[in-house]
Design a protein that fits this description.
By secondary structure, the chain is an alpha+beta fold. Helices cover 33% and strands 23% of the residues. The protein has helices spanning 9-16, 38-50, 82-85, 97-109, 145-155, 186-204, 242-252, 256-275, 316-334, 342-349, 351-358, 431-448; strands at 5-6, 25-33, 61-64, 73-76, 86-95, 119-127, 131-139, 233-241, 284-290, 302-308, 371-376, 384-385, 388-396, 405-412, 415-423. It is globular. The model is unreliable at 178-191 (pLDDT under 50).
Length: 454
């Protein structure tokens, strides 16, 4: 072992809000189709990767959390038990999407062992059509979504190979890039620091401003998405063509993110209407914004904006326009700050949310936002494990107190892959939201105009 080192505040944040009902773990689900029988491929993959010790961060980190506001510590260990962390599972063959979803929901519900490095990988055989799945779960304190996807993109290859690549816990580490504040004068750093309270004030006043597209905290209405949650999760997925999303963005003079939020908004509006619980006030989404520098490969580097989902708007074009105005205002607000302080701004702006997680009774207060919707850029071309092409790549995220749904989207090889993570008790039919999201694409395309998808 090496000596213990203090965690950054951004990483420690996720240990402070971890609880039995809200384990702060994120995951990726990857589906591969090998040329050989999938059972043999899965067994060879597990045998090959079992031979590698965990030599790469953050897979060799042992975490020692401390109570808020004290950051915990980490130490690098050399005796990581790979046989514990790398699991080999099987569905009753031939397993379909439903059977895989049931298994992954159970895996995502199980907490990580705090006495060990906070990650697990499961290789799952038994899928129909000669496929296997690989499910990687890790605590959010180890890395955020962008870092996790970058790590997996560096693990797999961009062309078929005869041999398996080394697993993520044994990959060669890229060099860390210097912090963005390096080379900046002391005076400029002071000026940047002074801007943070001003930006926080502008953000906070959004709760009382009217007719301002910049969304502030606690404008979100109480909703069926904001009930008390338990530890069991239900996972659902959906896939859309990225080219079609880009065509809609061009035709409507908006962005891909705006279109994605509009699709989610339409699906949530329909789902809540089915329940008879659509609020008159629009839902609010918290959208993480990556502020990671190139070469940073672990830890957390995220800021945030709040987006008006305009679920009170019946017309899909009016809904999209309100969403676009909201996200534009949020991005412009962040651009008033230097990149070097955006993570600090996010922690301070999220302080009320943190209080709701750790202060007894605070979760009963009106929600700061209704759900998290995160859009993570992924690899633009196909990835391979040996000769097996990765056909699908889904993100799965975490839930917080009184937040029963998370939607995370990952772009991969010309597709947008949606991962819906829900509390099993509060939203047992989250698959309806996934179906409605897919169907929302045709509705929005029709509203934007004929030929919008070409």
């Amino acid at each position: 072992m090496t000596g213990k080192k203090s965690m950054s505040i951004a990483d420690a944040f996720w240990t402070w809000v971890d609880s039995p009902d809200t384990p702060m773990q994120v995951a990726s689900l990857m589906i591969f189709r090998p040329a050989e029988p999938a059972v043999e491929f899965a067994r060879r993959l597990v045998a090959a990767w079992s031979a590698y010790p965990a030599t790469s961060r953050p897979f060799n980190y042992l975490t020692h959390p401390r109570p808020v506001p004290l950051p915990g510590t980490r130490e690098v260990i050399t005796d990581v038990d790979i046989d514990y962390h790398l699991r080999h599972s099987a569905l009753h063959s031939p397993g379909g999407q439903r059977e895989l979803g049931v298994l992954v929901s159970r895996l995502h519900s199980a907490p990580l062992d705090p006495r060990r490095p906070l990650w697990e990988m499961h290789v799952i055989e038994g899928l129909e059509d000669n496929r296997i799945a690989v499910y990687l779960k890790a605590h959010h304190s180890l890395f955020d979504g962008v870092a996790g996807i970058r790590l997996l993109a560096e693990t797999f290859t961009t062309a078929p190979t005869a041999e398996f690549p080394p697993p993520p816990w044994a990959r060669e580490l890229p060099k860390r890039s210097p912090r963005r504040t390096v080379g900046r004068s002391l005076g400029q750093r002071v000026i940047d620091a002074v801007k943070v309270p001003r930006a926080l004030s502008t953000f906070a006043l959004g709760a009382v401003r009217r007719n301002d597209p910049l969304v502030g905290p606690f404008q979100a209405p109480p909703s069926a998405l904001n009930a008390a949650i338990g530890p069991q999760r239900r996972i659902s997925t959906a896939v859309l063509d990225l080219g079609e999303i880009r065509a809609l963005a061009r035709s409507s003079a908006t962005t891909v993110n705006d279109i994605v939020l509009a699709l989610c908004s339409t699906a949530l509006r329909r789902y809540l209407a089915d329940l008879g619980e659509l609020p008159d006030v629009p839902l609010t989404a918290m959208c993480p914004v990556s502020v990671r520098a190139a070469g940073d490969d672990d830890g957390n580097a995220v800021s945030l904006i709040l987006a008006d989902l305009a679920t009170n708007e019946q017309d899909p074009l009016e809904r999209l326009a309100a969403i676009s105005a909201s996200t534009t205002a949020g991005k412009n607000h962040l651009q008033s700050l230097d990149a070097g302080v955006l993570s600090d701004y996010a922690i301070l702006a999220g302080a009320p949310w943190l209080a709701k997680q750790i202060v007894p009774g605070a979760s009963a207060v009106r929600p700061m936002f209704n759900l998290v919707i995160s859009n993570v850029p992924g690899p633009r071309t196909a990835l391979y494990a040996g000769d097996a092409r990765m056909e699908e790549f889904y993100p799965m995220s975490l839930l917080s107190k009184n937040e029963a749904l998370n939607i995370t989207i990952l772009s991969y090889d010309g597709k947008l892959n949606f991962g819906f993570t829900a509390c099993r008790d509060v939203l047992p039919h989250v698959q309806d939201v996934a179906v409605y999201t897919v169907e929302a694409l045709d509705e929005l395309a029709e509203a934007i105009g004929e030929g919008a998808l070409t």
